[in-house]
């Protein structure tokens, strides 16, 4: 039934938790006649068990509340079930939204959260994607960065002394690793989002003006097949396939991370969100970020963005909405909630009043990149609805040799044209 996206990003609601202790617990002598059930959709499979533990802590402190969590993610997180549930009036009390175009699409189901105190604590720019007509409809989940994550020890063993900043340098590193019997890349291409969202985004992000490029695409003034950066991304994809693990189309998210964490591959295209998974499998693994080079032009930029926003179902009962806001508030405002968020979830807070000390090396690099201001954007929030999934499917067909390079580029354009026409 109702699901939730409550994970790390809850940090944001920290300030909203200004309620008194007596407001969060019923008097000891009070008899609880009927519990309020909060249904939450959690898209972060990386912290599924940790989030369940957090919910139990909250229920213990608030015996009048029952929390039901449904964790989705990877290939399962396509939102089709969520659309059906919301349309039938049985959607979750808390779920997530990526902002921009998706916020407009889902606006009838989004509760206005403009009056929450955490709004004033959000870092500059982190609310832009979820603002409509001056109102704020979601709380930033967290800050995330992604690129290639590499195993320092394996690089050292293979004699890779410098972090590759160009595609030729990346190829050379892959050759050195292979000569030492090390598989260079973990390629979990069973996940279409890894291809159609994270990888293809680099072609958009490396444009001189990504927003202007997307506007021109929507106006029919430019064509994807004519843009060399999309060719470059396919060049990178080819490199990962040549020097990656076998059977990429049947290698899913967990399998991919497992290959990397166990030292069977040297690099993985992922983000700081896999830190808890790495810590669980190989707590002593020495890892770091490197950029995503796609051509001869050197780069040292990571992609850094707010991946999702926690939203409250506008159609929920008033009591459910009230408790949903209070729960989010508790997550980021209580000591226990913050400990889960920063130490167990390893989320990077996007609020000034939450400390970030024990998040792991990948988070530290993400924060440093964000503070430096030299990052690439996550542009998929500005894509027409449905195009990301089609991008991913087409790239999987290319990986499976069902499409040629030129056919793939043409499919990108056809998908975009269909999606933008459907929006009119």
From TrEMBL:
Pfam families hit by this protein: SBP_bac_1 (PF01547)
InterPro entries the UniProt entry points to: Bact_solute-bd_prot1, SBP
PANTHER family in UniProt: ARABINOSE-BINDING PROTEIN-RELATED, DIACETYLCHITOBIOSE BINDING PROTEIN DASA
UniProt-recorded name of the protein: Carbohydrate ABC transporter substrate-binding protein
